[in-house]
Amino acid sequence: MNRTLTLTQPAARSRPATFEELVETHYRQAYNIAYRMSGSATDAEDLTQEALIRAYQSFDRYQPELPFANWLYRIIANLHVDELRRRGRARVESMDACAALADIPDYSADPAGRVLSRELEGYLQQALDALSPNFRTAVVLCDIEGLSYEEIAEMMRCSIGTVRSRVHRGRKQMRRLLGVA
Predict the structure, then answer these.
(1) 11-90 has which CATH code?
(2) pTM exceeding 0.85
């Protein structure tokens, strides 16, 4: 169930309660995005918590007509990119576009399918973890988050051509790591 909450006029009077409800609705997905980017449960928890703190501190600037999830995910992505820069691990390389992750079926309907899905997710995460931080971030933002190249370029503070290149090379490396043509 993926419901999207927005801030309405009556809810504006109880901003902390509204924020809490929005966080409860989107926490799990936010953590999953952070985990895909960082590749570590500990780092994902830290990234998610820092993003929630930042979101709460700037909640008065949140535009209620926009989806809260997108706003929160953008905060997570920006924090992740900033952390990569702080660590000095962000090495700029070039790449282009292709779609390796889009054709993965949804097996969540039956128990055997859920086991297969969890196993597949494990392989995907291992492949993501094997990518360089820049490639991983670009692939996650593009293929999991569905952000445009322009949005990713803004977040990663690089050109659109660099984003295209990183997404393409990241996908290519993932296909190779997953044994997909």
Answers:
(1) 1.10.1740.10
(2) no
